[in-house]
């Protein structure tokens, strides 16, 4: 991987790794994650001090610059210790700054991107509804109807991560009912979280516990015209670039967790003894470790291959699905073996294997489920659409 990176990106990865070890050690992240529905503001502040929210935002908007490769490097290094808590960074970077970059107007970019880059503004993505995450368009009941000077939104979203602390919610809503294709007539809105008519409730969940995922009920919520992103009715097509980027970052997050698993498993195998010798001498466990190492290498190659395609603006939808599947499944299998290697301590809340397992488990089912991602890969090889 290293020989494919520019000198600048290589240096950035090294600096990030040192920062992560110094400022966000695993034991600290473990404690933060265990505090259900308590957003880790201290972690956010550290990210602000490091300039993490400005990665991928152009310097003219007060960002740090950098490409999707730089963002993937950051996601990987940060997730090695933060695991799923890396979404404290990722949610705003992908729901907010990416969408603004791809479909915001000049004045929207000028207004919001510098605030995101400086860590003054948080955003959350509110796409999924109870009626369907995979069948997002078929299940979408949230509507936006044109009114004087804006739009009136009604509907209910589910699983919106970080919605409880966000300043703005990126909401996908149907603006036209009579359309030729379900993907037509969808629009994107940047909705102020404190708007009248919005009720947000966190949901209990298996992992990423400090970062709440919430239901968002919208009852006659007025959103002014200047908060519509891009063209009305084209919201689905406008969001696909962000979603492809997000899949790559999901993969990078999983690869970071896999790095953490490999690191912790190696250390434990070297120090723990059984039958008078380090457990690392047992061949069965060595094979587990070898598998984890091979998965890491495969994930890494695919990650940077896809990141390069995205950075060069080459078609990458299929590769983005592939790398998301590969890294989420490898990371989750690796964490499962990691628990086996650590024995009882792997199941203990005092080590990180359980955290890697819980957080990588999520990324097998979302933001796109691995079944749906496989459907799309098969379709790209000439198979008929199965859904
Ligand atoms: C912790 C968490 C955080 C989340 N954060 C966000 C967020 O910030 N913003 C947001 O908008 N959403 C978020 N989501 C939602 C997430 O994207 C969805 O859960 C995901 O898309 C799956 O949708 P679903 O849960 O409705 O499952 P369903 O669509 O009901 O799927 C159930 C099962 O059926 C399978 N299935 C469905 N259709 C097909 C098909 N055509 N072929 C094969 N299998 C199929 C699925 O793969 C899955 O196994 C989050 C979810 C969770 C759990």
Brief summary of the model shown:
With 387 residues, this protein is α+β, with helices and mostly antiparallel strands. The chain contains twelve helices and ten strands.
Can you describe what's shown?
- The protein is an alpha+beta fold.
- It folds into 3 domains: 2-122, Acyl-CoA dehydrogenase/oxidase, N-terminal domain (Butyryl-Coa Dehydrogenase, subunit A, domain 1), CATH 1.10.540; 124-234, Butyryl-CoA Dehydrogenase, subunit A, domain 2 (Beta Barrel); 237-380, Butyryl-CoA Dehydrogenase, subunit A, domain 3.
- The chain is 52% helix and 15% strand.
- The protein has 12 helices and 10 strands.
- The strands form 3 sheets. The protein has a 4-stranded mixed β-sheet with strand order 1-4-5-8, covered by helices on one side.
- Helix 4 crosses helix 7 (235-271) and helix 5 packs antiparallel against helix 6.
- The longest helix is centred in the middle third of the chain and has 37 residues, at 235-271.
- The mean pLDDT is 96.
- The protein binds flavin-adenine dinucleotide.
């Amino acid at each position: 991987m290293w020989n494919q990176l520019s000198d600048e990106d290589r240096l950035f990865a090294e600096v990030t790794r040192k920062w992560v070890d110094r400022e966000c050690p695993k034991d600290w992240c473990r404690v933060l994650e265990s505090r259900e529905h308590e957003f880790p503001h201290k972690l956010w502040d550290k990210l602000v001090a490091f300039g993490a929210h400005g990665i991928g935002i152009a310097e003219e908007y007060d960002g740090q610059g950098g490409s999707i490769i730089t963002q993937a490097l950051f996601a990987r290094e940060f997730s090695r210790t933060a695991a799923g808590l890396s979404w404290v960074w990722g949610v705003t970077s992908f729901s907010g700054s990416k969408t603004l970059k791809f479909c915001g107007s000049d004045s929207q970019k000028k207004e919001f991107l510098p605030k995101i880059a400086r860590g003054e503004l948080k955003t959350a993505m509110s796409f999924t509804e109870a009626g369907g995450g995979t069948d997002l368009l078929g299940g979408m009941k949230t509507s936006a109807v044109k009114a004087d000077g804006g739009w009136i939104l009604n509907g209910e979203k589910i699983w919106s991560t970080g919605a409880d602390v966000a300043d703005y919610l990126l909401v996908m809503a149907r603006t036209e009912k009579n359309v030729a294709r379900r993907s037509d007539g969808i629009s994107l809105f940047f909705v102020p979280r404190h708007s009248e008519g919005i009720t947000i409730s966190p949901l209990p969940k298996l992992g990423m516990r400090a970062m709440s995922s919430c239901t968002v009920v919208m009852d006659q919520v007025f959103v002014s015209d200047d908060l519509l992103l891009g063209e009305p009715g084209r919201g689905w097509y406008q969001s696909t670039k962000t979603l492809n980027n997000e899949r790559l970052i999901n993969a990078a997050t999983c690869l970071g967790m896999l790095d953490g698993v490999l690191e912790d498993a190696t250390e434990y195998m070297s120090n723990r003894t059984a039958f008078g010798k380090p457990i690392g001498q047992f061949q069965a466990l060595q094979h587990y470790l070898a598998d984890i190492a091979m998965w890491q290498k495969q994930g890494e190659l695919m990650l940077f291959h896809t990141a390069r395609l995205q950075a060069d603006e080459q078609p990458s939808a299929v590769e983005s699905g592939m790398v998301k599947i590969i890294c989420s499944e490898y990371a989750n299998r690796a964490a499962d073996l990691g628990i086996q290697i650590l024995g009882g301590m792997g199941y203990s809340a005092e080590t990180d294997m359980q955290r890697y397992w819980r957080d990588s488990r999520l990324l097998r089912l979302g933001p796109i489920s691995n079944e749906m991602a496989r459907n799309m890969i098969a379709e790209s090889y000439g198979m008929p659409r199965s859904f």
